[in-house]
Amino acid sequence: MRGQLTVAVAFATALILVWQHTGSGVPAHHLLARQDMPAVSNWWGLLLLPLLTWVSASRIEHRFKGPALAAGAAPGFCAGLLFGAAIAFFFSSGRADLCEYLMQGLLLLALFVPIYRAEAVLGFVFGLTYAFGPVLPVLVACALAVIGYVLYQAPRLLWSAVGALRRR
Known about the structure:
By secondary structure, the chain is mainly alpha-helical. The protein contains six helices and two strands; from the N terminus they run αββααααα.
């Protein structure tokens, strides 16, 4: 699965870049959406998106075995994809304020849902890539994965430590 998915993502990315190149040109996106910051070309997607897909698919295959693979990974991927697409839509529509609220809500959600899992990160990046290119979503997703892991695991670790102290 990992190899086929990676090839499919690389092929789709190449097709989109060729289409952009023959049209208005391959866009570049400024860091933090500020013109005074460096711009990063969408050409980086040829490297980043297949690499992220390979790593994510490896993690997903490691966690789910056999027929449970698609059923186990699909909800997290779809949730990440929809969330990333919502942010991209609101940002492209000029409603950056809603993006801010969504990101704050995501951090609150991270206390209860493991947003750091590979399928959610991959879906999130795919959802954001059209509006922001591949580099910025990968950077944001990596930071959110670390923060999400800490927010999800810290209360559970604290709860188990309190339980261990009470059992003494």
